[in-house]
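Give me the fold.
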Amino acid sequence: WEPLFKKDASFFGPFVNPNHFAGYTEMVVPLSIGLSIVKWRHLAKKGPRGIREFFITVGNEEGCKLILFSFFIVLMVGALFLSSSRGGIISFLGSMVFLLAMMIKKEKERRNLTILVGFLISIFSLLIWMGIGPLIKEFSSIQDISMDYDIQYRFQNWKDTSKLVQDFPLFGAGLANFAAIFSKYKTSDLQYYYLYLENDYLQLLCEMGIFGFGIFSWFILSF
């Protein structure tokens, strides 16, 4: 099975678009890192104190499985960067900054910083080994947004939603109704039928209005 957009890459599995693959991966990796940290702490508590004793504990069956699991996490991050998805990579880096900040903020979690830093060192070592030239080339295109077709048409669509929100301010146009109604508000001359706005927050505001968006915002802030 070959991806639609990049014929030279076959590691995206069933994802048609590498950006969708990156979006899935950047959500899965932080969860996997969190689970791995819990497992490493549990393994450290089971074994006796001391560096030598710790390495002996790591050498048992449970420790070897955990090492393999950690390697798979680093491998997933490598696949994420190979997708060359700017949004996916930025989201992943943002999630790591958020995780670091949460650990530093909570005193009892600071002991886990060593494990997270170990993950980050392994990840960036892999990236250096893979070569970061293609990534630098991909991100350098952000310098001139006016030449980026994808960004320009998204900005135009996001601007067009302001009229939609004005017509359905309180409760929105209804869940899953965006695709059916957006063609009325679209001003670009592209002959596309948009199923999604490619901006979850704006689409939620369009479909559920201020009321639904307020509930969502309350949930995020409470969490």
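The mean pLDDT is 80.
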